[in-house]
Amino acid sequence: MPEPAAERRYEPVIGLEIHVQLSTRTKMFCGCELSFGQEPNSRTCPVCLGHPGVLPVVNAEAVHYGLMIGLALDCRIAPRSLFHRKSYFYPDQAKNYQISQYDVPLARDGRLGDVRVHRAHLEEDAAKLVHAGASGRIHSASGSTVDFNRGGTPLVEIVTEPDLRSAAEAAEWLRLLRATLKRLGVSDVNMEEGSLRCDANVSIRPVGQATLGVKAELKNMNSFRFLQRGIEAEIVRQEELVRGGGEVTQDTLHFDPRTGALTSLRSKEEAHDYRYFPEPDLVPLAPTEPMLERARAALPELPAERAERLERELALSADTARLLAYRGELGDFFEAALAANGGATADGAADARTLASWVTVELVPRLGDREPADSPVTPDALAKLAGMVSSKAVSQSAAKQVLDAMAEQGGDPEQLVAERGLALAGADELGEIVDRAVASNRDAVEQVRSGNGKAIGAIVGAVMRETKGRADGGEVQRMIRERIGF
Questions:
Q1: pLDDT 10s digits, 224-234
Q2: Average pLDDT value over all residues in the chain
Q3: 246 and 359: one domain?
Q4: 472 and 411 fall within a common domain
């Protein structure tokens, strides 16, 4: 007897569609320069506005970037791909069609991490709708207005297979993709400005079932948290619907991150609704071997490869390696600090894991929203500070005070230590301070002698307060235990 729907366990099945605005100088099929924040409708021409009789010309640099993306995603590059007209009557498309690629995309059958990439193809962006009451530079008492500056911007659309099984997994994979595209230098991947936009196709099915369920599409999510919350809400909606005896219908939805509400935008179109046909004004795109060689030569070490190398060669934890690799500027800072650290003496150099901790645990919170290049802390200076801790020239606690100062004004750590009197306390000075702490904390001493090892913290704390953090914690504990015979 079939298991009742209300009692079944369900699993989500998720695929992503990502639109990436390419950082070319001009639009996909005309000579208009790209625009963000310019006066509305000031970066347009008869071609991108679709005037009668105009002819599009393919942007060669956009093709180069598309090839780089395809190769970076381990895709097969089509020897011959086609541009099509995708017809739809929306106010954000002056031509009433979009030039895109349909059945023969530029690249397909790739992979990034554990997720298969179904296809990556070139197309042009639509214009920007600004609705009454929304923020922006266009204002209207009612209704909506259109800024055509964005129309025609080169895009690569990346479509995954439905390989993701949770909202958190989807957000993490999108972080990897964003880091990869940023490392390639093909886009600024600024989600807030819309140069990276993500749609999610979400369905559920009983655990153990191979057949896919009916999917709903969540549109235009522009942050990782937005994406994760939207998918989570849609999974809950579908499970409640199915458990209540209903059926999921194919739909396009909007998730409001302020209220957590899902609203229907329109029934999902099928391919025949767009009336695709080959673009008659453009020849097929057939990459030559020199074009492919140029794209291959432009590929840097990618984030997934970098994370694997940092973990393998430097014995960093997987989480630390991933953080340094996914935040490329942070990884560059760490590797520059590591190179500077290698020039120190064996006694004064911090090992790679220690240095990585100084970068990811200590420096990152002090950066805030800044990238390392925008901070006055240099890789050489951080490497020197970490080396001073390793060689016991300064305590860990005092070094953090020095880093606070460096994050505000920069400077040389040795000079800052000298100016602020933060050098590690000498043996004689420290011995006297320990003697006083032991004498003034007799209750703690007796507790330690009675077997309560944690009570030693009160004595250590007294020493650290008097030295203002200039003492090495391990040495303080050793001296205390020596004096109380424990």
A1: 999 999 999 99
A2: 89
A3: no
A4: no
Dmax of the chain from CA atoms?
Answer: 96
The enclosing domain of 453 has a CATH number of: 1.10.10.410
State which of 392, 419, 446 marks the end of a domain: 419
**Contact between residue 481 and residue 456 where contact means Cβ atoms under 8 Å apart:** yes
Please tell me the distance from the alpha carbon of residue 304 to that of residue 322, in angstroms, as a whole number: 8
94 and 215, same domain (yes or no): yes
Residue-wise pLDDT for 3-18, tens only, equals: 666 678 999 999 999 9
- Residues 293, 321: one domain? no
DSSP 77: E
- Of the candidates 274, 297, 320, which is a domain's last residue? 297
Number of H-type helices and E-type strands within the chain: 16, 14
Q: Are 434 and 463 in contact (CB under 8 A)?
A: yes
Based on the domain organization, do 253 and 310 belong to the same domain?
no
Residue 152 pLDDT greater than 90, yes or no: yes
DSSP 13-79: EEEEEEEEE---SB-SSSSPBP-SSSPTT-S--TTTTT-TT------HHHHHHHHHHHHHTTPEEPS
Residues 273 and 365 placed together within one structural domain of the fold:
no
pLDDT tens, position by position, 444-456 = 888 878 888 788 8
**pLDDT of 344 over the 50 cut:** no
Q: What confidence category does residue 346 fall into, taking pLDDT thresholds of 50, 70 and 90?
A: very low
Residues 124 and 159 in one domain: yes
- State the DSSP H helix or E strand holding residue 399, giving kind and residue range, or none if neither: helix 396-409
Task: Pull the structure tokens for residue 446.
Answer: 């007796």
What pLDDT shows up at residue 2? 60
Residue 91 has pLDDT above 90, yes or no: no
* Both tokens assigned to 340: 């500077």
Burial label for 328, CB within 10 Å (0-12, 13-18, 19+), is: buried
- Count other Cβ atoms within 10 Å, centred on residue 354: 14
The distance in angstroms from the start CA to the end CA of the chain is 70
Which secondary structure element, helix H or strand E, spans residue 252, and what is its range? strand 251-255
Tokens 């301070």, residue located: 433
pLDDT in the model for residue 38: 87
Q: How many domains does the chain fold into?
A: 3
**Measured distance CA(23)–CA(195) in Å, rounded:** 9
353-365 per-position pLDDT tens digit: 999 999 999 999 9
According to the model, what pLDDT value does residue 136 have?
Answer: 46
Beta strands, E only, 125-261: 128-131, 144-147, 154-160, 196-206, 216-221, 251-255
For the record, the structure tokens of 297 come out as 């030569």
Measuring CA to CA, which residue among 239, 229, 173, 235 is closest to residue 202?
235
Range of the domain at 377: 303-419
**445 and 411, same domain (yes or no):** no
Q: For the chain, what percent of residues have pLDDT higher than 90?
A: 67
Instruction: Give helix 167-184 / helix 328-341 axis angle, nearest 10°.
Output: 60
What pLDDT does residue 235 have? 96
